[in-house]
Amino acid sequence: MPTRKPPRRARPRALLAALLLAACAGGSGDDASHLPNPLSLPGQALGNAIGNGIYNARRGKVEAYVKAHHPALIEEIRAGGGPLLTHAMALAGVRPEMRPTLALRLKADIGLYLNSPEALVVALMVHGG
User: 93-129 b/e with 16+ CB inside 10 Å = b?
Assistant: First the structure.
């Protein structure tokens, strides 16, 4: 029984698909690729879950602290800093060397935080580690 050849249209499509997969796969391992190694996916998922849990716990602490001390934090931001603001930055994971710069930014944008503790939480978390 003679073997059937695939239709003519299938060959260019198959070739194109093979070329695209080869381009995405990378060669030496140092090449950028958007296709992850399938064997690493369970580990990455676990790592992401742990990282998200840590972030959410830290954000929860910052949110509770900011909401409990919002008026005093606003006054310290206006003054250029203070112990409550320093503690809020520490809770958010802001590196000590970045805190003076962040205090200046918060002061410059004080209008954003006057009536929105959530906006202050976001600003702290964005600059946190």
Answer: ebeeeebeebbeebeeeeeebeeebeebbbbbbebbe
What value does the mean pLDDT of the chain take?
A: 83
Would you say the pTM of this structure is higher than 0.70?
no
5 DSSP assignment: P
Give dist(CA 71, CA 107) in Å, integer.
14
Question: Are 116 and 70 contacting, i.e. CB atoms less than 8 angstroms apart?
Answer: no
Per-residue burial over 2-41, b = 16 or more CB atoms within 10 Å of its CB, e = otherwise: eeeeeeeeeeeeeeeeeeeeeeeeeeeeeeeeeeeeeeee
Residue 92, SS3 per DSSP: helix
Would you call 49 exposed, middle or buried from its count of C-beta atoms within 10 A (0-12, 13-18, 19+)? exposed
d(CA 1, CA 23) in angstroms, rounded, equals 38
